[in-house]
Amino acid sequence: MNPFWTVSLFWIAAIVCVAIALAFVLPVLLRPRRQGKQRARSEINIAVYRDQLKEMEADKENGLLSEEQFKATKLELESRLAEDALSAEETPKTVSTIHRTLGYGLGVLLTSASFGLYFWLGNPMSMVSATGMEPAAAHPDMSASQGDHDFQKMIERVEEKIRANPDDGNAWALLAKSYAATSQWPQALQAYEKAIQFLPHDASVLSGYAEALAIKNNRSLNGKVVKLVKKALESDPNDIKGLELAGVMAFQDKNYAKASNYFKRLHALLPPDSQYAQDILGAQKKADSFLEKNGTTETANPAMEPPAGKPTGNASVATIKGIVDIAPELKSSLSANDVLFVFARSPGGGPPVAALRASANQLPLEFELNDSMAMNPSNSLSQQKEVMIVARISKTGSAIGQSGDMEGTQSGVKVGTAGLKIQINQVKP
After folding, report:
1. Tens of pLDDT along 165-185?
2. Which residues, in sequence order, are CB contacts of 405 under 8 Å at separation 6+?
3. pLDDT in tens, 111-128
4. pTM score
5. 371, 368, 387: which is closest to 379 by C-alpha?
6. Rg of the Cα trace of the chain?
7. How many CB atoms lie within 10 A of CB 376?
């Protein structure tokens, strides 16, 4: 529900409850109960005066009172009756005013006390969090300490989940990423070492493990880190952290062309207005600048780049262009979170030689595969004569095919082909 309506409904309900409470209290206090008693007293006095008048009239008839005595006594009796009547009219007004003031005072006091105690002892922000909105998302300007507190809560929940099920690889991965987000790198490294035992092919786990390991080794990007990054990009060519680390490693090795390609691919996956995207774009421009000044240099990292002296083919024609679409009978199976992968694979199998990732909502999609999209530069599209093109819609976002994914394939596609048409028309069992 919209936070505005959530808060509005809450206050409406609170006001109704206070009004109901006052409805039980105020009528009792505002009712002029003593006025009824005074009226009954006046009626009794009038009855007494009537009896006395009848007795005086009887005494007059019996000769006990003279005419002058009767008139004098009657006048005195009427004077007392008038005085009682006047006092009976003034008394209820005084009593009613007191009760009315008390009632209104209690009404204001109860209302103020109710809302005041809620703001003092309650939690007004729970009305916003109850809508499902996270605090960081609802208030981007919140302090970093609040974000750390939220992460710590999440870490505690994940730790409880792991204690209940130590073999939950996804929980270990989430715990590792949470530790990394709060810069608790020793704990993140331990969690990644656990997660990778259960998820050895998960790209985000592999690249996250590489980052934690590099930070432990004084940010050294070599050895096992290189192998982890390579394996991450083999599992998912568009893994964010994998592309970032690969670009940094290529830049450090002075392979500015590859660094620029990695950063360019990474930038295309990021929200263009984000600070991260601007930083990556700056890194790409810096790599391009060094490339213009120094030209292509020999690769210093054989694990990430093609070996020296190995032919790379004619890169200028190493492209495959086409359009991919989905069969009409499968369109109803698409959902907003589905991910589209288009990749080229050598006829002999193995990891893709070029791949791209997009949202399935972009179908029909015009695509181009080239050497900049190689998962492993030593096994690129330009080194193939013909390939098999696979278009896959993943329900989980994983590049590895799973049951329920939808696919379309085209074999024997020559490198350099343009105008290729692929239809996704099969569902993996």
Report:
1. 989 988 898 888 888 877 788
2. 392, 393, 394, 395, 427, 428
3. 776 666 665 555 554 444
4. 0.40
5. 371
6. 44
7. 19
